[in-house]
C-alpha cells in the first residue's frame, strides 16, 4: 500500500480555521465598538440630570422674561448667542440679576449655554468656520434633530462633566 501525504491538507485546514476565527473576532470587535460608542452617546447626550437642570434654567429665564431681550440681539451671521461661558453668565444679558444667575449656573454645573435658532444648518456652518467651543459640543449640535418646526429657538447646554442637553424654547417669539 502506498502512503498518502496529508501535510498539505493540514496546512490548508489550519489556514481556513484561522481565517474563520479572525473573521469572527473582527466582527465581534466591530460590534463591541459600536455598542460602546452608543452607550457613551446615550450617557452623554440628553441624560435625565442634564435635562432637569436645563428645564429649571429655562423656567428661570421665562420667569425673568430674558428671552424677549436676548432674541432681539440675534446676529444673523452666527445664529447663536452665548449666554454662559466658562461657568459665568454673560453680563450684558444678566446685569440686573448676575449673582443669582451665576449661582444657578454653578449649581447646575453648566460650562457653556447657547441659545440658537432651530435652523441648525447655518449655525453648524458658522461653528465649523470658527469654533470657539469644544469639538464635543459641535458634535452634539450636529446630532440634534428638531421634530417640531413651530419652535424657532433652543437652548444648548454643555456641562462640566462632558454631558450635553438641549431644550426647545416654546414661549419665544
Describe this structure in words.
There is one protein chain. By secondary structure, the protein is α+β, with helices and mostly antiparallel strands. 55% of the residues lie in helices and 17% in strands. It has a 5-stranded antiparallel beta sheet, with helices on both faces. The longest helix is centred in the N-terminal third of the chain and has 38 residues, at 7-44. The mean pLDDT is 82.
Entry summary:
The protein is built from seven helices and five strands; from the N terminus they run H-H-H-E-E-H-H-E-H-H-E-E. By secondary structure, it is α+β, with helices and mostly antiparallel strands. It has two domains: 1-44; 46-169, no CATH class.
Amino acid at each position: 500500500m502506498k502512503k498518502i501525504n496529508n501535510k498539505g491538507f493540514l496546512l490548508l485546514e489550519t489556514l481556513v480555521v484561522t481565517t474563520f476565527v479572525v473573521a469572527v473576532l473582527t466582527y465581534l470587535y466591530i460590534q463591541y465598538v459600536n455598542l460602546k460608542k452608543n452607550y457613551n452617546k446615550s450617557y452623554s447626550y440628553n441624560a435625565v440630570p442634564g435635562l432637569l437642570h436645563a428645564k429649571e434654567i429655562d423656567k428661570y429665564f421665562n420667569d425673568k422674561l430674558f428671552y424677549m431681550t436676548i432674541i432681539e440681539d440675534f446676529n444673523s451671521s452666527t445664529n447663536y448667542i452665548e449666554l454662559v461661558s466658562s461657568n459665568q453668565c454673560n453680563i450684558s444679558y444678566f446685569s440686573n440679576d448676575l449673582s443669582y444667575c451665576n449661582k444657578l449656573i454653578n449649581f447646575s454645573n453648566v460650562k457653556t449655554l447657547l441659545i440658537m435658532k432651530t435652523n441648525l444648518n447655518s449655525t453648524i456652518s458658522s461653528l465649523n468656520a470658527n469654533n470657539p467651543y469644544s469639538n464635543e459640543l459641535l458634535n452634539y449640535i450636529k446630532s440634534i434633530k428638531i421634530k417640531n418646526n413651530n419652535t424657532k429657538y433652543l437652548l444648548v447646554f454643555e456641562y462640566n462633566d462632558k454631558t450635553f442637553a438641549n431644550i426647545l424654547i416654546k414661549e419665544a417669539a
